[in-house]
Amino acid sequence: MPVNPLGVALRNKRVGHEKLVWARPELRAPETFTLSSPAFEDGGAMPEQYRGRLFGHNTSPALDWTTPPGTAVELVLIVEDADSPFGNPNTHGLAAGIDPALGGIPVDGLTEAGRVTGVELGKAGPRHGWFGPMPIRSHGPHSYVFQLFALDRRLGLPGRFKLGAAVEAMAGHVVGRAKLEGTRENR
Question: Which pTM does this prediction carry?
């Protein structure tokens, strides 16, 4: 594919991990459990099928987690692109109401409401739930950070909620957290 001049021009412009919700003081807590995916290693490349609709199938990857803290009654998943060149990280996945006892979310569990019982999908990019990676061609690799927060209360967020509403409701109620990073590059 030909080089994208916009991607090249923005190559050194990235929002960085310090702008992820993970870095917000009101959401800090010990990393007391782990998050993984059978589809890719932590820090590894995410397979093609998980890319956004323009490039792939927009399928959300399966996720597994170890036992969260015993005081956790709900999990919230936020997936952000730490390498977006535009102001703030792009949200690529948003889900709340996750039962900690589930132990995981199956492949494609975040692409349509009702696929996983009790899970409410929030707005991720122009979609709800999962909005697969679509980095700017020639911009270099992007890091997609899956951030899973264990909460000591139920948030009761309605479907189609936005990231700001989730963060506001979560503040002061995070009792543990876990993260996983996957990468994608559009050459």
Answer: 0.95
* Alpha-helix runs per DSSP H in the chain: 5-9, 163-170
Q: Provide the CA 86 distance to its chain's centre, in angstroms.
A: 17
Give the C-alpha separation, 182 to 82, whole Å.
11
Rounded CA-CA distance 130/152 in Å is 25
Structure token digits, residue 120:
């409410």
pLDDT of residue 9: 79
Say if domain 5-184 classifies as CATH 3.40.980.10.
no
Average model confidence (pLDDT) across the chain: 93
CA atoms of 20 and 15, how far apart (whole Å): 9
Contact in structure between 29 and 173 (CB atoms under 8 Å): no
C-alpha 135 chain-centroid distance? 15
